[in-house]
């Protein structure tokens, strides 16, 4: 899988980055979970003053924040944003086909009519 480079990033509230990719649609990545798993190293990102310093570096391969070792690479950022995107109708159809589920089975699994 080819991961696009980051063209621009805008840090917003609630530990979310709005990302403009080079050659791919824009997306958002909510990084609260990633920060929570980073232990003491990523704790400074909980500070609004540090969070707003997010900048694109390494020719679009990384987002870094002011401070020592505060960064995330484009690959992981792209993965997180993809995992968090809205689940579209085509995604449901693809999942249903891959799982080999009938409409009734898929509805039961998802808890809908």
From TrEMBL:
InterPro entries: NE0471-like_N. It comes from Rhizobium miluonense. This is DUF2442 domain-containing protein. It comes from the Bacteria.
């Amino acid at each position: 899988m080819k991961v696009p480079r980051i063209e621009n990033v805008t840090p917003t509230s609630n530990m979310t980055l709005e990302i403009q990719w080079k050659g791919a649609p824009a997306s958002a990545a909510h990084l609260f979970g990633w920060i929570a798993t980073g232990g003491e190293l990523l704790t400074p990102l909980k500070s609004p003053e540090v969070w707003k310093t997010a900048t694109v570096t390494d020719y679009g391969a990384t987002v870094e924040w002011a401070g020592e070792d505060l960064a995330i690479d484009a690959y992981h950022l792209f993965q997180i944003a993809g995992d968090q995107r809205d689940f579209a109708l085509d995604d449901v159809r693809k999942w249903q086909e891959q799982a080999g589920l009938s409409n009734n089975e898929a509805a039961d699994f998802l808890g809908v009519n």
